[in-house]
Amino acid sequence: MFGFLKRKIREIKAPVDGEVVALESVDDEVFSQKLVGDGVAIKPISNVFTAPIAGTISKIFSTNHAYSIKSDKDLEVMVHIGLDTVALNGAGFERLAKEGDHVACGDAVIKVDMNVLQQAKDTITPIIISEGSDVKSIEKRLNIVKSGDVIMEVN
User: Fold this and answer.
1) Is 15-154 a CATH 2.70.70.10 domain?
2) Catalytic residue among 39, 65, 80, 81
3) pLDDT tens track for 109-122
């Protein structure tokens, strides 16, 4: 009777191949204490980072180490490639898309030289649902994934 009130589950997919781990295990308080939002992290084993949701690229940092995508459904997801990677000043990061582009889930956004990325504090990549997104609950899947596998379901 009230089916129209039921919220649709939104999927967030892995932007890169690797192992999904709990955000709390990330060696950076900003992420592990969820100061910028909730999510998971991936220990990447491939070098192309894609859109985890369909939407518009709302931000790509000038050093290309992080980007955000806003969906049409009040959900914004940030992918932060590695820890302290801003210190690399963009070295090893190649932008494959630009701010304002509409992307499908799985479209390539950033390509990384893994040899350069490994010079950062850590290659672990937090995938964060930005604060302000319309979220009631998050189901997280911690396992080995390929780019495009579901890593979170958001209600």
Assistant:
1) yes
2) 80
3) 999 999 999 999 99
